Structure formats: structure tokens, C-alpha cells
Amino acid sequence: DLDPTLSKGLGPVVPPWRPPLPDGRRQATRWRRLAAGVVDEVLLSVPVYMALAADAPAWAAVAIHAMYHALPSAMFGWTLGKLWTGLRLVDRHSIRTPNVARIALRWAVSVLPLLAAIGLGRDVDVVTAVSLAVYAPIVWRLRGLHDLAAGTAVVERSPAGPGLWVRQRTTTSVMTKGVPTR
């Protein structure tokens, strides 16, 4: 009655769509990344709007963006949006907080839509195209162009699951006559 590969300890026949990393954590889902991004952009929009309303030069928005995204990512591996949604930024190879060079490259690619908006006079078509080029790969690969360029990944903060609202993940689950047992 058991799947022969599971009963031999070989794992499932179909690999999970988010296989665990060596430390047990999984890549963040696109929905958690979207939630973290929305939180980050809402929090970021307040100081950017205040700076632009005070007739600050356009590069001030880029500096605020860098301080909000690059600084905490380099120090802690998260932004406030990632922290709230239980996510963390890691180096894809070492599974640790990325070094400053990787963070700088990731930030430089992620700020391309903002630079397009500033440099091209807020042309909606160009900004939309650049934004899609940077962020659309998250839908298919769970990693955006900025992650791919920098060799980073956004993962769950802990192997137990992404955040406070998720119960402990079970690692061994076997189906017996259609009923899951643990």
C-alpha cells in the first residue's frame, strides 16, 4: 500500500516544488515575497514622498531606497517587510547573510525601475517594462533578476516554517490507505 520509494527511504517520487536547502529552510513563496515587498514599499513611500514634497533632488529617493533596503539586508539579512513575513535574505551558496558586494549588486539591479523613472521622466511604459524584467522571474523561479544577478535567495527565517503563524513543519509523512500518518 505504501509508495515503494518512500518505504525504501528514497524520498518522494515527485520532488517538492520548493526543495529544502541544506539547513532545512525552504525558498520563500511568491506570495510571502509579495507581502514583504508591499510592506517594504509602503514603509519606504513615506520618507520618499516627504523628501520629494520638500523639493529634494531625485537622487534623494535613491539614497533613501539604499538605506532602507541595502543597509539592513547587509547587517541582518532582512528588511522590515521580510522580518514581518518571516523571511530572510541569504547567499545562495553559503546559506548565510550575503556579503556587502552581493548586497550592493542586488540593490543596484533592484533599483533599476526607480532609476528608469527618474532618468526617463516617469514614462510609465518604460518603468513597467523594467519592473517586470527585474521582478517577474519570481513568479517562475522564486528568484528575481536581482537575486539571480547577486547569487542570493529569499528563504524562510527558520526550518520550522516562515513565521509566527505557521506550525512546526513535519518532515516525515506517509500515506496509508489514503490517510496521512505521522
Strand order of the largest sheet: 1-2
What is the succession of H and E elements?
HHHHEHHHHHEEE
Query: Overall mean pLDDT score?
Result: 82
In angstroms, what is the radius of gyration?
20 Å
Question: Any idea what the shape is?
Answer: globular
How much helix, percentage-wise, in residues? Answer: 40-55%
Number of domains: 1
- Which parts are unreliable, with pLDDT below 50 for 5 consecutive residues or more? 165-169, 171-182
Structural class: mainly alpha
**C-alpha termini separation:** 16 Å
| Beta fraction | 5-15%
Number of strands: 4
Total helices: the number is: 9
Most strands sheet: 2 strands, antiparallel
Multimeric state of these chains?
single chain
Write a concise keyword list for the protein shown above.
two-stranded antiparallel ribbon, globular, disordered C terminus, 4 strands, 52% helix, 182 residues, mainly alpha, two-stranded antiparallel sheet
Explain this structure.
The strands form two sheets. Strands 1-2 form a two-stranded antiparallel ribbon. The chain has a two-stranded antiparallel sheet with strand order 3-4. It is 52% helix and 9% strand. It is built from nine helices and four strands, in the order ααααβαααααβββ. It is mainly α and 182 residues long. It has one domain (24-158). The two termini are 16 Å apart. Strand 3 and strand 4 form a beta hairpin.
